[in-house]
């Protein structure tokens, strides 16, 4: 029995992943029913959206005490958008808080490598909620 068959029997949703030109896993997700491009980052504690995409996803931004760090930048000011819906290929969760911060440094790195810009990052918070299993060989994410 394949991993895909086994996990489908256990109620997991299968999500096909792609790789960016920078070798990051990428996927399409919907926030509040609006589609966007995301990097899958197991090292990011929170799911994030770039400040420039706040309008795209119709997010209600509030100031936050959280300071973001990572990908060569640290101590960045953030905002938070609370109680959002997220959907990834049929897997859905409500009441998701999303951290909002400047993703320009991430998108510059991607465009410097002729990769597509992203709206945000799917982080460990979503992966935990979905009991995620990542199959790197078959470029697949499974969420329950």
What would you note in describing this structure?
It contains three helices and eleven strands, in the order αββββββββαβαββ. It has 144 residues and is of the alpha+beta class. It has a single domain, classed as Cathepsin D, subunit A, domain 1, CATH 2.40.70. It has a six-stranded mixed barrel. The protein has a three-stranded antiparallel sheet with strand order 1-11-10, with helices on one face. A hairpin with a 2-residue loop joins β3 and β4 (34-40). It is globular, with a radius of gyration of 15 Å. The model has no long low-confidence stretch (mean pLDDT 92).
Feature tags:
six-stranded mixed barrel, 144 residues, 11 strands, alpha+beta, Peptidase_aspartic_dom_sf, three-stranded antiparallel beta sheet, 3 helices, hydrolase activity, hydrolase, Aspartic_peptidase_AS, single chain
What fold name goes in the CATH topology slot? Cathepsin D, subunit A, domain 1
Overall average pLDDT: 92
CATH superfamily: Acid Proteases
Number of helices: 3
List the helices and strands and how they pair.
Blueprint: H1 3-9, E1 13-16, E2 18-19, E3 25-31, E4 34-40, E5 48-50, E6 62-70, E7 73-88, E8 91-101, H2 104-112, E9 120-122, H3 124-129, E10 133-135, E11 140-143
Parallel strand pairs: 4-9, 5-8
Antiparallel strand pairs: 1-11, 2-3, 3-4, 3-7, 5-9, 6-7, 7-8, 10-11
Organism: Christiangramia antarctica
Protein name: Retropepsin-like aspartic protease
GO molecular function: hydrolase activity
In short:
This protein has 144 residues and is of the alpha+beta class.
């Amino acid at each position: 029995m394949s991993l895909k068959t086994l996990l489908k029997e256990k109620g997991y949703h299968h999500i096909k992943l792609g790789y960016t030109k920078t070798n990051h896993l990428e996927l399409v997700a919907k926030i509040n029913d609006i589609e966007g491009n995301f990097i899958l980052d197991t090292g990011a504690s929170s799911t994030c959206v770039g400040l420039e995409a706040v309008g795209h996803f119709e997010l209600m931004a509030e100031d936050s005490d959280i300071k973001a760090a990572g990908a060569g930048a640290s101590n960045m000011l953030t905002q938070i958008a609370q109680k959002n819906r997220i959907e990834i290929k049929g897997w859905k969760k409500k009441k998701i808080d999303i951290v909002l911060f400047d993703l320009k440094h991430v998108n510059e790195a991607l465009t410097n490598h002729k990769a597509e810009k992203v709206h945000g990052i799917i982080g460990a918070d979503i992966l935990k909620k979905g009991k995620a299993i990542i199959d790197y060989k078959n470029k697949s994410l499974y969420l329950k």
